Amino acid sequence: MNVTADAILLTGCAGFIGSRVAQQLLAGGSRVVGVDNVNDYYDVRLKRHRLTQLACQAHFAFVEADIEDERAVAALFDAHRFSCVINLAARAGVRYSMENPRVYMTTNLMGSLNLLESMRRHGISKFVLASTSSLYSGQSMPFVESLPVNTPISPYAASKKAAEVLAYSYHFLYGIDVSVVRYFTVYGPAGRPDMSIFRFIRWIDQQHPIELFGDGKQSRDFTYVDDIAQGTILAMRPLGYEIINLGGGNEPTSLLEVIEQIEHHFGKKANFDRRPFHQADMKSTWADISKAKRLLGWQPTVPLREGIAQTVNWYRQNLPFSSSIVL
After folding, report:
1. In the Cβ-directed half-sphere of 228, how many Cα atoms lie within 13 Å?
2. Catalytic positions
3. Cα(91)–Cα(106) distance, rounded to whole angstroms?
4. What is the mean pLDDT of residues 150-170?
5. Other CB atoms closer than 10 Å to residue 221's CB: what's the count?
6. Which pLDDT value is given to residue 4?
7. SS in 3 state form for 192-209?
8. Cβ–Cβ < 8 Å for 167, 116
9. Dihedrals φ, ψ of 245, to 5°?
10. What's the rounded Cα separation, in Å, for the pair 202 and 325?
């Protein structure tokens, strides 16, 4: 790829959402420099699988690096000319953040700081930051962006809130245009194996008992990954500093309802290994997406039933690999 031409820096490009954002950017004619440290938080083979889909594209360049590494980030900005930075590199997972909180702060906060500092030095004006619906814990639904989110209940949510606040300070001090996109329970083909829908598909197919925390009535605003990718790209437009929900926008769906849909595809009934509800989990999430509609002209297009069907199809088409991914 010609690195002298303006490109988009996309961190976390081997990740679930990042790889789909990369695909949509490339399909739209953009040049993309993708960065990922390809860590082993979950099965690295799945990340390599996603990267394989991108590697053959002429306008894509991959750099294996960690945004926690200040020197590596600085070298990246010295080598390329960027028009926008989309930061999807993050440590995800509410429960694991309680076991290893430090890495969440070093990646989600210090990694963002390294990017913003390089943007400031090179005069790059647009930053898109991925954040989370986990910040809305304890608020009334549907969640609107103006709700106070000052009491995160996990280190993961706290690290995302810290990154949002840091990005605002760089907007205020240096005029960097910032779009913070708060994602709501993203699912789809080649999804993260630590997320519920991926696990439910595997466990139902293999007749392995489903680990169900609580009674299964907890509900989520499930959002298909391609819709999320489109909203993330639309957030690249100049907005000043805005926090924008990207979610399904409909009433949330319970885990038991999702399990029933997956059972239908396999013609098998789920078995359950029932466990106590985790204190860091949220009972329900539901996005108010009126701001995304107004500012971005965005709304999701893939209904849950169709999205689950496509996710099950990916699982089946990628057997036996998909059945061997470490959960």
Report:
1. 29
2. 156
3. 9
4. 93
5. 28
6. 46
7. CCCCHHHHHHHHHHCCCC
8. yes
9. -75, 135
10. 9
Q: How far is CA 24 from the centre of its chain?
A: 15
| Order of all β-strands in the sheet with 32-36 | 60-64, 32-36, 7-11, 82-87, 126-132, 177-183, 241-246
pLDDT in tens, 215-266: 899 999 999 999 999 999 999 999 999 999 999 988 899 999 999 999 999 9
17-52 b/e (C-beta count within 10 Å ≥ 16 → b): bbbbbbbebbeeebbbbbbbbeeebbbeebbebbbe
* Residue 54, CA distances (Å) to 3, 22, 23, 24, 301 in order: 17, 8, 7, 11, 24
- Give the separation between CA 326 and CA 44, rounded to whole angstroms: 9
Distance CA 74, CA 281 (A): 37
How far, CA to CA in Å, does 202 sit from each of 27, 120, 180, 205, 322?
A: 31, 45, 33, 5, 8
Q: What is the pLDDT of residues 186-221, one digit of tens each?
A: 999 999 999 999 999 999 999 999 999 888 999 999
Instruction: Please count the helices (runs of H) and the strands (runs of E) in the chain.
Output: 13, 13
The token duo for 315 is 């699982």
What is the distance between the terminal CA atoms of the chain, rounded to a whole angstrom?
A: 35
Q: Where are the beta strands (DSSP E) in 214-268?
A: 219-220, 223-224, 241-246, 253-254
Q: Which residues contact 196 (CB under 8 A, 6 or more apart)?
A: 255, 258
With CA atoms as reference, report the closest residue to 41 among 86, 87, 93.
Answer: 93
Residue 280 has pLDDT above 70, yes or no: no
What is the pLDDT confidence band of residue 5, given thresholds at 50, 70 and 90? low
Check: CB of residue 134 under 8 Å from CB of residue 184. Answer: no
Determine what percent of the chain is predicted with pLDDT higher than 70: 98
pLDDT at 2 over 70: no
Query: Which residues pair with residue 187 across a beta bridge?
Result: 224
